[in-house]
Specification:
Shape: globular
Structural class: alpha+beta
Largest sheet: 3 strands, antiparallel
CATH topology: GIY-YIG endonuclease
Number of strands: 3
Low-confidence stretches: none
Strand content: 15-25%
Distance between the termini: 25 Å
Radius of gyration: 12 Å
CATH class: Alpha Beta
Mean pLDDT: 97
Order of helices and strands: EEHHEHH
Number of helices: 4
Helix content: 40-55%
Strand order of the largest sheet: 2-1-3
């Protein structure tokens, strides 16, 4: 069974946030960290993996990504702190 990941990257603690979805978390975070693809995360230095959810349902993953993108910033920060109070880079 395939896994899908909804993830949040941050530039720093309480910094700029990016929300994405992928079926290969390691590859995708590597791409963000190394600026492989031009875009928002490269432009704003958003490279720290601070939150991740896993599911085996791509539809659910996409819906969750959309939901989180519409959330108020305060709610996103609270979600991150509940899972990762020190804002550690979960990528290692």
């Amino acid at each position: 069974m395939r896994s899908y990941y909804v993830y949040i990257l941050a530039s720093q603690r309480n910094g700029t946030l990016y929300i994405g979805v992928t079926n290969d978390l390691i590859r995708r975070v590597y791409e963000h960290k190394h600026g492989v693809v031009d875009g928002f995360t490269k432009k704003y230095g958003v490279h720290r993996l601070v939150y991740v959810e896993e599911t085996n349902d791509i539809g659910a993953a996409i819906e969750r990504e959309k939901q989180l993108k519409w959330w108020k910033r305060k709610w996103k920060l609270q979600l991150i702190v509940r899972m990762n109070p020190n804002w550690d880079d979960l990528f290692g």
